[in-house]
Structures are given as structure tokens and as C-alpha cells.
Amino acid sequence: MPEPTLVRRALRHPLLWPVLALLVLLLVNVVVNPSFLSVRMQDGHLYGNVIDIIRNSAPVMLVALGMTLVIATRGIDLSVGAIAAIAAAVACTRIVGAGDEGALVTAVMAVTYALVVCLLLGAWNGFLVAVLGIQPIIATLILMVAGRGISMAITDGQITTVNNPWFSDLASGFVLTLPLAFLVAFGMLLLTAALTRRTALGMLIEAVGINPEASRLAGVRSRTIIWTVYAFSGLCAGLAGLVIAANTNSVNANSLGLWIELDAILAVVIGGTSLMGGRFSLAGTFVGALFIATLTRTIPNIGIPSEVNYLFKAIVVIAVCLLQSPRARAMLRPRRRRPTPAPVIAKAGSPA
Amino acid sequence: MTQLARSKAVAPPGTDRPPVIEMRDITISFGAVTALDRVSVRLFPGEVHALMGENGAGKSTLIKALTGVYTVDDGTVLVDGERHEFHSPAASQAAGISTVYQEVNLVPNLTVAENMMLGREPRRFGAIDVRAMNRAARKTLLHLGLDVDPATVLEDHPIAVQQLVAIARAVGVQAKVLILDEPTSSLDADEVEKLFAVMRRLREEGVAIVFVSHFLDQVYEIADRMTILRNGRLVEERMVAQTPRLELVRLMIGRELETLERLDRAPRTEAEGGAPLLTAIGLGRKNSLEATDLQLFEGEVVGIAGLLGSGRTELARLLYGADHADTGELTVRSERRRLRNPRQALARKIAFSSENRKAEGIVGDLTVADNMLLALQASRGWLRPVPQATRTRLVRDYIEALDIRPADPTALMRNLSGGNQQKVLLARWLIVQPEILILDEPTRGIDIGAKAQIQAKVAELAEKGLSVVFISAELEEVLRLSDRLVVMRDRHKIDERPNDDVSVRDVLEIIAGEAREQGDRDA
Q1: Predicted TM-score (pTM) of this structure
Q2: Chain A environment of B56 (Cβ under 8 Å)
Q3: Which residue has the higher pLDDT, B140 or A337?
């Protein structure tokens, strides 16, 4: 049996289209602005559009990681934006209320406190879905709406501003020349990958997403698994909220993380994970999140007027989704007949 | 190659009529696996054409090529002498080809009429004319001799009726070609007769019927001509009447029938020492199973016979904890406890293979290896993955032991044929090393070769001390394997006896009871 060539393997690779879309987007930027990709070193930090992109991709990437696992179980989590706002509200009010506002310990305590709250909120979603059997879209819609109210209540409806250098570093700090925010998101990606692929969690999540009943009969603890992924999604959303808040050193409960669930879902879908659940790709989600961040950066760079930027974003997203649809690709490609010479003698029975 | 295929063809009745369908040198591959390799088939109007072959022979693939589900890589399809390329099921239907698949492919929560008329509902002022729709559906149903109210919801009917509705739907579109893929696997004898009557009528009307069935009796009863496939290739085209059964089986599996012979094992008659492994007393569930007693000893195969809906599956599910029992008690190894979920059963070394392979067995988008290891992994929990070396060894061993094809651990489960999927599922349960194995219809819809292999495996495991509850609609199979026989009817146990010299006819008489004299058909 002939080994598929490297090229053919690459052509069939599920990451091909997302990566290609990302490259095309970068190319468009370079054409408009030849110095787009240039990166310079300043004070031991890297600066440039690319660095901005990876830093700005952090919140979406974080949210999308949790979302990927939730979607793999056939679920969806609409509450991530609200959870992000709650995390930011909790952390900022803790910092403001602390005795020593600028201390490292204050920042660490506030962040930990906020993340625990988010874990609980995610577990609440998981409880509604896994135990009460409420449809995910409805179950998480509850917190999507209520969560804004909660974060407003925490901040008394005021824009809370904090002054803690350690906390701001979460968004603007640099470690090893790279933005800390990106490293946090990337670290979370690695952690998630290890958690799902080094253990059996990923396979069990996929099994539950593909065939819940067969999984139940095989003794899979689907309830625990579903609960876990929602809690994890809450945690990721919380982390994203902290990064966003750190970026402005403030929290506006009304607007923080607004619509981020949609960007995250898009990142997941662009990355090749099906909304029907089942097989998921964290690498795909990573590329998807980078794509979303690049797109956001592209809009001002190529001079799209701000009135139409949502429209532009939608058009690009549609184009990418079309590229990924096998049917749309088949329509684009001229029909070919497989060449007949040298038929492959592959007996189905013989071991490959 | 075409020449070769042609030379194997035999003259059908009334050769003067041209074939309504001619498939020439059809080739279809999935990745590296060639599912069909230059297969040619002809269908003539007014014949019942049996498509014969083992699992993985390519029958389902061929049907899916004809119905537009799969696109043909190479080869041509002629309909009434004209070349067609089917890129979708709709294109195939438009050419007059209708299909009833192995598993009922209808919408459970629509009515019978809505299902039958789906996509071609009669309209009135733009809206669906429900009355006209029900009338049309009723007409078709009556034509088939089916007494079903078209306004009732489909899922309220038993599977058998749903299957007949699926056939009625296919008949209703005035098809030139009707494809029946394992239509009889969930029908009882009466219903099979009903179906055959319909098929004969359609044959007289000039419809070409493709019939796929693993019941040889049925093939010999109804089919005129057949095409035999093996390993994705055409073996031969034959007239049914001129082909002795043994020869057909030889053509299909391409090897001698040793596996089938070896099965007949001496029933265990020695008195079982000690307490039973499993005892159910009065186990029951509302609207599903009346209070039922059952005992199972070590190394014993208990066969459960009964028609569809007799409570055989329901009993199995209660024993496994797949459903909750309302009444009765269950004792496993002197521990008295009703099982509340499959995990509790698995913890007590009970495994259960569901009759519903597609919905409750396979995880289609995962690999063969993952499917095999699912239950083991679930019992270990997600934090302790099965070590790579163990994983490789287990998967390789079971692929070899059960002769799973393709022998590729990374193949996606959904791309395997039914019989091979069933073997992977059997492997899934054997890997957890159960002491009690409940097999519900483990051989349904699969071919003789795989069936024999699965039966032989069950017999072998029982010899080694595994206790098995074996459920099958095929009485021969139950009788061949069981040490003890439990007969069920109308949701309760009506008879239990050691399996010595019990014949199919005996069992049928028990099932039929005093009320009816049934069973002559099978004798």
C-alpha cells in the first residue's frame, strides 16, 4: 500500500484551512502595509503588530479553550462573557478594598478569589446541564443574563478603576520578551492539551459528545465529565475577564467581555471543531483565536471605516466557513475523474 | 476486467428485457481501504435480486453507491440504458430508486403519514393538506395490507411497524427499483410473510427489488437471482433456484464451513455446585417487564428466546442497570442490590452489549481502538489512561482473535461494516474481563461468517467459565449456544428448561402457546 505523500497528508490535514486563512489575512495586511510584520526589540521587549495580535488574542483564546471542550460534549456556553465580567468585578473590588492596593499579595489574592468564583459559576452551569438536563443553550443563557446583573451589583454599577502594577502586568507585562497575557493563554492551552490528551479525558469527552447513550452503557461518567467541562469553561472565562480588566486597569460591568462568547465560538468553529460535538482540536482553536485577533487588527490597518467593521468581519468569517465546508469546496473545484491506471490492489482483508 | 465480470453473468428470466439498472465496474475507496473493486451488477424489471455476501463484502457500499449516498470513484451506472451520476440521494430517488435501510431511517416524532409523505406532502393553498396526506398514506398502507392509522405518531409503534412504514414510504413513491437492506431483521414471522406478499405484488408490477438479508431461508423463498460479493469484489451472478445452499455459503465466505460445525458443543448438564452467580427474583419494571425470576451459574449460557417485544431486551437492561427496576431484587455474588446504573453493573463484572448497535453501541467518529477500550477506560477513570503498550497489545490481540476487518486500529468505527462493528463491541466488553456477559442480539444483521465467529467465541468463553445471557431472535442460534433456555412472551417468562434436545419447533410451540398453532414455517 503506498504511503500517502507528505503533500497529500498536508492537504488532508484538518488544520490546513484555518492556517491558510490566517496566512492569507496576514498577506493582505502586508500588501497594504509592507512593514506590518516587522518586529523590533525595545527595552528587552518585542514590539510590533504581530506582538499586539498575540497579546490581544489572549482573552478570546482563553474563552475558546473552555468553549472547545464544552462544544465537544454537544454543549455551548453563552455565559462566558458575563462570567468574565464577574471575574473582573470581583478582582477589582477586592483590590480596591484591600488595605495595600498596590501589593503583589493583594493582586494574587484578588485573582485567586475571582477564579474560584468563576469555577463555581461554571459548576452551576454544569449542574443545570448535567444534573437537571436543561438544554445547554438555555442553561447558560440564564447566567449570560444574570451574570451581567451580578457584576453590576458587585461594582455598584460604577466603573471601578484599580491601581496595582502586578495586576496590570497580566495584560501589559512582558516575560522573556513576550507579552504575559499571551503566555498565560498559551500556558493554558498547553495545560488543557495535557489535561485532555495525556489523560483519557479528551477521548471520554469525545465519546460523550458523539454518542451519550453508548458512553453511558459503557460506564462513562458522562455527568461528571459534562460538569467538569462547564466548570473549566467558567475558569477560562474568568481568566479572560482578568486579562481584559488588567488591560484597562478598570472594570465596566456593562461592557467587559461583551460578545466574547461569539468570538470564542467562531474561533472554535474556524479551528475545525464541529458544533455537533465529538472530535475537537485545541490546535485548531488556537489558530482560530489568532485568526479572530488578526482580523480585528486588520480592520484599522487596511483602512476599513469603523461603521462597517462588523460587516467586514462577518464577510471574512463566512468566507472562512465556506472554505471549510467540503460541499462548498467541491463546488469551487472542477470535477475531476480519478485516473484509472495502476489500480491500487488493496485487499480489505489484509492487514494494512 | 469488464469482460471477466460479463462472463460471470447469467441470463435472467426474460433476457429480452433490458436491465433497468446496470452498474459497471464500480469502484469506491475510503482512504486506503477499497470498499468496492470493479463490481458490476444488473437489475431487471420484475425480479427480486438478492445481494449476498459477508460483512464487509461491500453490499452496503454498493447500495449506497446506487442511492447516491456515496459518490462512485470509478465505473458507470446506467438507468434504463442511460448513464447517470448520483451525487445525492435526491438524484437517485428522482431516477426511481427507493431505499429502506437496515436501521429505520424515519422521523420518530412525526406521524406515520407525515413520514410516508415527507418531502412530497400534498398541498392546498400552500399549506400541507393533512387530510389528503392521511388519505394518500392510508391508501398505500392498505395496498400493503397494513392496518396502521396514518395519523398516529411513528415512535408509538413497535420497531417492526416502523420498518413496514419505511417500506410503505418507499413503495409510495412509485419506485422502479426498491432496495430493501435487511428489512426483515426485526420482523417476526407474520410480518415477514406480509412483507413478502408485498414484494411479490411489486414484482408482478414490474419493480426491480434488491433484497439484502442474512436469512438464507428468506432469500431462497423470495429471490429470483442473486449477486454474490466477497471482500469488495464480485464473485458471481447466479440464479437462486440453481444454486444449492452449501455452494452459496461457500461462494460467500470462500472457505469451508468448519467454524459453523465446531460450534455445536455439548450442553452442560452437570449439576452446578454452589450458589448461582446471579439471581433475580421478581425483577420488573412498569410498562416494560412483569416480575421475572432468573438464575445464572458460572460458566453457563442461558438463552432467552421470544419474539420482539416479549420482554427479552427489557430483562437484559434491568439485569445490567441500564434501566431501573421498580420491583424485585437482584443478587450478584451474594450481594443483594438492585443496580441503578451501568457503572454499578460493570463494577460487579457484568457487561451488556445492546441490541441497538448504532444508537447504544458504537461511537462512530472515534477509532476502532478507542471504541474497544471505551469501557475499560471508563472503569479506570480519566486520570488513569490505559498505558500505550497495553493499549496496543489489547487492540492488536482482539483484532486478530475476532478477525476484525480492516485490521486497522485507527480506522473510524463508522466506516466498518455492521459485523465488524459488532466484533469491536464484543471486544470492548471482553476487555473489561466480565464474569457475566449479557449479549442482546449480538449477531443481528451480520453475515454467516461473522456470526459463526461470534458464536464460537461465546462458546469458547463459556467453556472458560464466563456466564452468558444470550438473546437472539434466531432460535437456532439460541438453541445451539444455550445450556438452559428461558422463553418469554408478553413481557414475562413463560417457560424455562434445560436445553437438551429442544428443537426450534418446541420453542415455537411454547411461544405460540395454546392459542395458535404456529411454527410450521420454521420446521
Answers
A1: 0.74
A2: 348-349
A3: B140
Which three-class secondary structure state does DSSP give residue B73?
Answer: coil
Q: Tell me what the mean pLDDT of segment A188-196 comes to.
A: 96
CATH number at B331 reads: 3.40.50.300
Compare all CA atoms of chain A with the CA of B346 and give the residue at the minimum distance: A219
Task: Say if residue B242 is in the same domain as residue B317.
Answer: no
Query: Which letter does DSSP use for residue B264 in this model?
Result: -
The gap between the terminal CA atoms of chain B, to the nearest Å, is: 44
C-alpha A226/C-alpha A210 separation (Å) is: 13
Determine, for residues B378 and A215 on separate chains, whether the beta-carbon distance falls below 8 Å.
yes
Residues B199-222, mean pLDDT to the nearest whole number:
86
Q: Which residues of A touch B346 (CB under 8 A)?
A: 219
- Distance to chain B for A260, nearest Cα, Å: 30
Averaged confidence pLDDT in chain A: 87
Per-residue pLDDT at B440 exceeds 60: yes
At residue B191, does pLDDT exceed 70? yes
Indicate if B237 and B267 belong to the same structural domain: no
Chain A residues closer than 8 Å to B407 by CB: 350-352
Last residue of a domain, one of B174, B200, B220: B174
Residues B9 and B64 in one domain: yes
Give the best residue of B29, B229, B357, B363 to mutate against chain A (max A CB count within 10 A). Answer: B363
Counting every residue, how long is chain A? 352
Domain assignment of residue B166, yes or no: yes
Regarding whether B334 and B315 lie in a shared domain, the answer is yes
Is pLDDT above 70 for B355? yes
**Nearest-by-Cβ selection for B74 from A217, A219, A338:** A338
Q: Determine, yes or no, domain membership for B355.
A: no
Residues B164 and B221 in one domain: no
B29, B232, B365 member nearest A279 (Cβ): B365
CB-side exposure of B510: number of CA atoms within 13 Å?
A: 22
Nearest CB to B363; choose among A210, A346, A350:
A210
In a domain, residue B354? The reply is: no
Range name among A288-302, B72-86, B112-126 with the lowest pLDDT average: B112-126
> Are B265 and B139 in the same domain?
no
Domains (range + CATH), chain A: 10-332 (1.10.3470)
Instruction: Cell numbers for B271, please give them.
Output: 449439576
Residue A300 confidence class, pLDDT cut points 50, 70, 90:
confident
In this structure, is residue B102 part of a structural domain? no
- Spatial contact of A287 and A270, defined as CB atoms under 8 Å apart: yes
Residues on chain A touching B438 (C-beta within 8 angstroms): none
Report helix, strand or coil for A170: helix
Range of the domain at B32: 2-96+176-255
Instruction: Look up residue B231 and give its three cell numbers.
Output: 471482500
CA dihedral (B109, B113, B119, B121) positive or negative: negative
Is the ipTM higher than 0.85? The answer is: no
Over residues A115-165, the pLDDT tens digits come to: 999 999 999 999 999 999 999 999 999 999 999 999 999 998 888 888 888
Assess whether B211 and B237 both reside in one domain: yes
| pLDDT recorded at residue B88 | 85
Q: Are residues B184 and B63 in the same domain?
A: yes
> Is B428 in contact with B372 (CB distance < 8 Å)?
yes
User: Mind listing the pLDDT tens digit for each residue in A25-81?
Assistant: 899 989 988 888 888 888 878 888 889 999 999 999 999 999 999 999 999 999 999
Residue of B nearest to A208 (CA): B363
Residue from B12, B8, B7 nearest B240 by CA: B12
Domain boundary among B220, B255, B290: B255
Residue with the bigger pLDDT between B302 and B108: it is B302
Domain tally, chain B: 4
Listing DSSP states for B155-218 in one string gives: GGS-HHHHHHHHHHHHHHTT-SEEEEESTTTT--HHHHHHHHHHHHHHHHTT-EEEEE-S-HHH
Answer yes or no: do A204 and B363 touch at CB < 8 A.
no
